Amino acid sequence: MLRSRLINLPKTVKRNISTNIPALQKATDPIQQLFLDKLREYKSKSTGGKLVDAGPEILKEHQSEIDKLNVQYGGDKGVDMTQFPQFKFVDPAVDVGSVDKK
């Protein structure tokens, strides 16, 4: 029944549906199930974009690397490096008197 409905779909849609169906089902392999459980556990721990299970020495090293990158790419204290830079283009003044009139 599903195959008869898929006959009218483009080939790329058929391919995407057929490759995603096994991913939507429950894992039958115990190793695969363990992997999926670990992914779900990691997802639940990684809230707010923070490092997962990081000790104080890892956080200190992470902050020092961020500080080095900020200095290298022009960030200073008080500069928000997550914002896109604002560009201001000013047209140069043109001296019309020096243009040769013919």
From TrEMBL:
Homology family: Belongs to the eukaryotic ATPase subunit F6 family.
Gene Ontology cellular component list: mitochondrial inner membrane; proton-transporting ATP synthase complex
Keyword terms of this UniProt record: CF(0), Hydrogen ion transport, Ion transport, Membrane, Mitochondrion, Mitochondrion inner membrane, Transport
Name the record gives this protein: ATP synthase-coupling factor 6, mitochondrial
GO biological process entries: proton motive force-driven ATP synthesis
Pfam families xrefs: ATP-synt_F6
Keyword flag Chaperone: no
